[in-house]
Design goal:
The complex is a heterodimer. By secondary structure, chain A is mostly beta strands. Helix content of chain A is 0%, strand content 45%. Chain A contains no helices and nine strands. In chain A, strands 1-9-8-3-4 form a five-stranded mixed beta sheet, with no helix packed on it. A four-stranded antiparallel beta sheet of chain A has the order 2-7-6-5, with no helix packed on it. Chain A is globular and about 40 Å long. Chain A starts with 8 loop residues before the first strand and ends with a strand. The model of chain A has no long low-confidence stretch (mean pLDDT 91). Helix content of chain B is 0%, strand content 57%. Chain B is built from no helices and eleven strands. Chain B is globular, with a radius of gyration of 13 Å. The chains are: A mainly beta, B mainly beta. At the A-B interface, strand 3 and strand 4 of A face strand 4, strand 5, strand 9 and strand 10 of B.
Chain lengths: 111, 112
């Protein structure tokens, strides 16, 4: 599975959009981009995933570049409860679906 | 709806004692099941995964073992705990790519 690169930390003002970048330049055609987040002392929470097209759900939007070498997770109106470590993961699936978590980005939402 | 239960929430055990952590999933059948560990200040490390009853794959050889006696039950065990076994243990389940992973609330284990 392709490796990902994320900034170690980011800050965002409450109520503003949080844009979290992820580089995955070695991604292959059958690999999905997944985003999870982990609030302190809790288990990771699934946010969104996509293959080629941009995706949106009730939590966030995922923008994938046309060449698929990078993506951006957008939290449209960040709240203090969105402070967490955000993980961008690329993998191709298979019968066992093993996700490998990197170090992620610590997003701090400030009042 | 599907739910995942993991217990206990916290556990303090002496070095050399045995360990048994249990995870159960409700509302789904034949899930893939996973055990992860997160040491203090570290990332998530996949320990074991299972694609069916009695089928266990180990990712990291160590002092731990896993078993899946029933379709929706996953157990993490150790015969003799080490100090290095301390950490946050998370169970997760998945039905495939479209569903992603759903994690339990975790067990914080401290070996003293």
């Amino acid at each position: 599975d392709a490796k990902t690169t994320q900034p170690p930390s980011m800050d965002c003002a409450e109520g503003r959009a949080a844009n979290l970048p992820c580089n995955h330049s070695t991604i292959s055609g059958n690999e999905y981009v997944y985003w999870y987040r982990q609030i302190h002392s809790q288990g990771p929470q699934y946010i969104i995933h996509g293959l080629k097209n941009n995706e949106t759900n009730e939590m966030a939007s995922l923008i994938i570049t046309e060449d698929r070498k990078s993506s951006t997770l957008i939290l449209p109106h960040a709240t203090l409860r969105d402070t967490a470590v955000y993980y961008c993961i690329v993998y191709s699936g298979g019968s066992n679906y093993k996700l490998t978590f990197g170090k992620g980005t610590l997003l701090t939402v400030n009042p | 709806s599907q739910t995942i239960h993991q217990w206990p929430a916290t556990l303090v055990q002496p070095v050399g004692s045995p360990l048994s952590l249990e995870c159960t999933v409700e509302g789904t059948s034949n899930p893939n099941l996973y055990w992860y560990r997160q040491a203090a200040g570290r990332g998530l490390q996949l320990l074991f995964y299972s694609v069916g009853i009695g089928q266990i794959s180990s990712e990291v050889p160590q002092n731990l073992s896993a078993s899946r006696p029933q379709d929706r039950q996953f157990i993490l065990s150790s015969k003799k705990l080490l100090l290095s076994d301390s950490g946050f243990y998370l169970c997760a389940w998945s039905l495939g790519q479209a569903s992603g992973y759903t994690f339990g609330s975790g067990t914080r284990l401290t070996v003293v």
